[in-house]
Design a protein that fits this description.
single chain; alpha+beta; Immunoglobulin-like; 5 domains; seven-stranded mixed beta sheet; 18% helix; 43% strand; rod-shaped; disordered N terminus
Length: 578
């Protein structure tokens, strides 16, 4: 029983092992044409020809390559314990190869089926296997290459067996003794003369025991930029064509590109682009430049460049403006006095002095004469920059609010009368009105809506109608005088109150006590006459401010006696004082 149990256990173990092995293995049964084609699986060189290749279950990338034929690349799924058939027939590719030729011969007896790659390490650089390049008797196994330096790689089943640089000249043969530490031996190659005479030669020929691979030189047929000169941030198109290239790259950020094609580039500085084409026939380069214009043309003008500014009190009376116009090209960012603007445009710049603060009443006016610079700055991402400045000259003034001297106007008794409506406005009162008119005209520059209100009165003597007519003649005479001084009639309002709104004696007494023109003692003693004199007046109000004239009697005026006396003065005397 023990022996039986042991045998059963052993049998189960054998079954498990067999089952495990079956689960791990599958096969790729591949048939290739031409018969010399080489098989790569998952990037590893396996062997040439048609064979069954053990592979683990799953997806694999199978590449079949033979120089002179189009490469075949396809994915194959291997199932455990099964054989997956694959038939690959390669199509011939490429023209015959012209002379000159050099020859590379490889002596590597233990690895006769290893793949030989020139100038690269992917299947596209495959040129044959060692067994195709290791004899030179009455049959020939030879690798013909363009004269120059080539990087030779020998690999199989994921292992790099040899890598080295070989320089071959036309008409010479270089032997790589891989088994002798990679020693290189250069010999004359008489057969090269015969082959050169037969040129051009097919890329691949093979007999029962012979093979000739003629590698075409890698070429860059064209490489150009259009346009060759661009502004900053503009693009240029690089276009190229190559022949017999496997990998093609362009430096300066372009990277890997198709072997033939075009690519848009946007360099930020003048750039020399180098196209590198690599293939079994060598690695070649070509260059093309794109010139980048970084300069920024710019203009800036101000029209007009001379501006006027005037301010009275808190009001700006005159503030000219200038149109600043600018143009730029090839600019990314444009600013005017630090503010970002469009590359081309215009804006209004007002006259604005450095100090426009208000001058207090009674203060001295400030004269403005200064220059303001408007500055344009333009830059681009290519390092270009431009600065333009335009000067604006500002002249003018900042003035206080004009003073309007308001002084009540006084008349002699019963003047003007009906027969002489222009008589009675004596010289001192005319001067007061002239001073008022001069100040008011300047004030109108500050407040164009301002007006004067004239309010005329008469003393208590005489009837009400008489005094009403008298006060009307007084106010009209004052208005006419102001108009004669250059004040528009619509700026003067009038009112006549006759004897209806007299100043009382107490008010007159207070005025006299504060009168800057001190009254004579005799006039103070005659309070009634003084009171009557104060009521033969016209008050003046500045509108809309409501400022009212000072009601002080002009005792210091040369003609004050004529105005103050109670009896009506003779006409001739009044006329003489006008």
């Amino acid at each position: 029983m023990r022996r039986l149990g042991y045998l059963l256990t052993l049998a189960m173990a054998i079954v498990l092992v067999a089952t495990s092995g079956f689960a791990q293995d599958g096969k790729l049964k591949i048939k290739v044409t031409p018969a010399q084609a080489y098989v790569f699986v998952d990037g590893n060189a396996i062997r040439e020809g048609s064979h069954s290749i053990p592979l683990s279950p799953g997806k694999h990338t199978v590449v079949v390559v033979n120089y002179g034929y189009k490469i075949s690349t396809q994915d194959v799924t291997i199932e455990a314990g099964k054989s997956t058939p694959l038939e690959v027939k390669l199509d011939p590719y490429g023209d015959k190869v012209p002379a000159p030729y050099g020859r590379i011969m490889i002596e590597f007896k233990p690895q006769g089926k290893a793949a030989v790659l020139l100038n690269g390490k992917t299947p596209g650089y495959f040129v044959g296997n060692v067994d195709e390049f290791n004899h030179d008797w009455w049959w020939h196994q030879e690798l013909l290459v363009p004269p120059g330096t080539h990087q030779v790689t020998i690999t199989r089943e994921g292992k790099e067996l040899y890598a080295g640089s070989v320089t071959v000249k036309a008409g010479e043969k270089v032997i790589i003794h891989v088994t002798n530490s990679g020693k290189l031996e250069t010999k004359p190659w008489k057969r090269g003369d015969d082959l050169t005479k037969k040129a051009p030669l097919p890329r691949f020929t093979a007999g029962m025991a012979s093979a000739t691979v003629v590698v075409a030189p890698t070429k860059i047929l064209s490489f150009s930029a259009s346009p060759t000169t661009v502004n900053c941030t503009q693009s240029s198109s690089l276009s190229w064509t190559t022949a017999d290239a496997v990998d093609t790259t362009i430096d300066n950020g372009v990277g890997v590109v198709p072997n033939n094609g075009s690519s848009s580039v946007t360099p930020l500085a003048t750039t020399n682009y180098t196209l590198t084409a690599a293939g079994p026939g060598g690695i070649v380069t070509n260059a093309s430049s794109v010139n980048v214009i970084t300069a920024i043309p710019a203009t800036l003008t101000a029209n007009p460049s001379d501006l006027h500014y005037r301010k009275i009190g808190d009001k700006v009376i005159t503030q000219d403006s200038s149109t600043v116009t600018w143009t730029t090209s090839n600019a990314g960012t444009v600013t005017i006095d630090g503010q970002k603007v469009d590359p081309n445009g215009s804006e209004i710049v007002k006259a604005e002095p450095a100090d426009s603060s208000q001058v207090p009443d009674g203060g001295a006016a400030r004269t403005i004469d200064e220059t303001k610079n408007v500055t344009l700055n333009a830059t681009n991402v290519c390092g270009g920059s431009a600065t333009q400045t335009s000067a604006i000259h500002i002249t003018g003034s900042v003035e206080p609010i004009p003073a309007v001297t308001l002084q009540s106007i006084f008349y002699p008794t019963d003047y003007p009368d009906k027969k002489n409506p222009q008589v009675g406005l004596v010289r001192s009162q005319q001067l007061a009105l002239a001073t008022l008119a001069g100040g008011f005209k300047k004030y109108l520059e500050y407040d164009p809506d301002a007006k004067l209100s004239i309010e005329a009165h008469a003393d208590e003597r005489g009837s009400k109608p008489f005094n009403q007519d008298l006060s009307e003649r007084r106010v009209e005479r004052i208005k006419q005088y102001l108009v004669d001084q250059g004040i528009s009639a619509d700026k003067v309002q009038t009112a006549a109150y006759g004897k209806d709104q007299p100043l009382d004696k107490a008010t007159v007494s207070t005025l006299e006590s504060t009168n800057p023109s001190a009254p004579p003692k005799a006039r103070l003693a005659d309070k009634r006459s003084d009171w009557l004199a104060y009521n033969r007046r016209a008050d003046i109000v500045l509108l809309p401010s409501g400022k009212k004239s000072a009601q002080f009697f002009p005792h210091s005026a040369d003609d004050s006696k004529l105005i103050w006396q109670v009896p009506k003065p003779p006409l001739a005397k009044v006329q003489a004082d006008q």
